[in-house]
Amino acid sequence: MRAVKDDRLVLTTYGRSSGFCIDPVEKKPLNHFLPGTPTLSFGTAGCNLTCKFCQNWSISKAREFDKLADRAKPEMIALAAERSGCRSVAFTYNDPVIFLEYAVDVAQACHERGIKTVAVTAGYISPEPRKEFFQHMDAANVDLKAFTQDFYQRLCTGKLDAILDILRLR
């Protein structure tokens, strides 16, 4: 998802999506954020966890860029949401912290049109990029997958403490 190009680390999936779908916002699942409204959902490839039970494995762990068939500039996503009657755009299917730069640019384009943004995330992100990411999100669902460190290490190859840290934020 990232590569070195001209001595810089770049996001290779910028502007590329595994697909777009209009969902009810409750599917994110959010019940008290713009209830009863549609949201334009999309994701890219890549995830920072490797959950053995992932329902989006074929999307989030796509090894071939051919699976990222849809291309869209941030402004086009905001316009598509507006034209479709969506009051929000949801970054979902894979963890949006993986495509932080693209998610932030899409969020800014959405906000310019009065469209809200939703992050569906595992919450596995370091403090510095976390600040930047969440300052552009209007709502988030942090998916706590289990309550033990052993579970996170064995089944997700992550650390529970990192997720608990984000859940403690206000």
Key features of this structure:
170 residues, alpha/beta, TIM Barrel, five-stranded mixed sheet, two-stranded antiparallel sheet, 6 helices, 9 strands, 31% helix, 22% strand, globular, Aldolase_TIM
CATH architecture: Alpha-Beta Barrel
What's the N-to-C terminus distance? 30 Å
Reported by name, the CATH topology is TIM Barrel
What is the strand arrangement across the widest sheet? Answer: 4-5-7-8-9
Whole-number tally of structural domains: 1
Mean pLDDT: 90
Strand content: 15-25%
N-to-C SSE string, H for helix and E for strand: EEEEEHEHEHEHEHH
- The value of Rg in angstroms is 16 Å
Structural class: alpha/beta
Helix content: 25-40%
What is the highest CATH level, the class? Alpha Beta
Q: What's the main sheet like?
A: 5 strands, mixed
Overall, the morphology is globular
How many helices? 6
> How many strand elements?
9
